[in-house]
Design goal:
heterodimer, A: mainly beta, six-stranded mixed beta sheet, four-stranded antiparallel beta sheet, 0% helix, B: mainly beta, 48% strand, globular
Chain lengths: 116, 116
């Protein structure tokens, strides 16, 4: 069965600290997609990144970077030099290719608080 | 394009009443998804449409829930005989079908339902 686990419920850091949000997934499908979404206090989910199961290259976008490791079924997200505006709930999600539904299986989310 | 819109943003109702929510997806998106998010949890998939066809329903979607997308544009989600356990944020998302399971889903701001 498919499942996404975000073991960190809440993380609090001081501005400019680096922080890593963990994501572990389970799937029997060989082709799948992994996503990260940000949910700021306003509530609307904002897409951050998508990765397919055949692309294990790490990605960097500004202060954000993602580390995908199939061997450990993990897709971790690092924010470098965190800022107060990064405060939000972050969700990791999985979509299996099987059935081609595109439905997302979300983790429980990690609440990140960045203090000035 | 104004993105995905949902109405109403908030709904307070008494137990036993019926409620209906509306979602207007991004105009060229042919896939539309409904999710439910309870406090402190990640969104959970309810159902999705490709054009006007409802292709999958979660077992979370009890007989009291019905969704429609009559002309393949906007969608409605109706809950009959509401229960307190229905209190949640109802999220709508849309995407392009050709992108398949890896397609980015764009989320609306959600409708927060409170059942008294």
């Amino acid at each position: 069965a498919q499942k996404v686990t975000q073991a960190q419920t809440e993380i609090s850091v001081v501005e400019k600290e680096d922080v890593t949000l963990d994501c572990v997934y389970e799937t029997r499908d060989t082709t799948y997609y992994l996503f990260w979404y940000k949910q700021p206090p306003s509530g609307e989910l904002v897409f951050l990144i998508r990765r397919n199961s055949f692309d294990e290259q790490n990605e960097i976008s500004g202060r954000y970077s993602w580390n995908f490791q199939k061997s450990t079924s993990s897709f971790n997200f690092t924010i470098t030099a965190s800022q107060v505006v990064d405060s939000a709930v972050y969700f990791c999600a999985l979509s299996e290719h099987r059935g081609n539904t595109g439905k997302l299986i979300f983790g429980q989310g990690t609440t990140l608080q960045v203090k000035p | 394009d104004t993105g995905v819109s949902q109405n109403p943003r908030h709904k307070i109702t008494k137990r036993g009443q019926n409620v209906t929510f509306r979602c207007d997806p991004i105009s060229e998106h042919n896939r539309l998804y409904w999710y439910r998010q309870t406090l402190g949890q990640g969104p959970e998939f309810l159902t999705y449409f490709q054009n006007e066809a409802q292709l999958e329903k979660s077992r979370l979607l009890s007989d009291r829930f019905s969704a429609e997308r009559p002309k393949g544009s906007f969608s409605t989600l109706e809950i009959q005989r509401t229960e307190q356990g229905d209190s949640a944020m109802y999220l709508c998302a849309s995407s392009l079908a050709f992108a398949g399971s890896g397609g980015e889903q764009f989320f609306g701001p959600g409708t927060r339902l409170t059942v008294l």
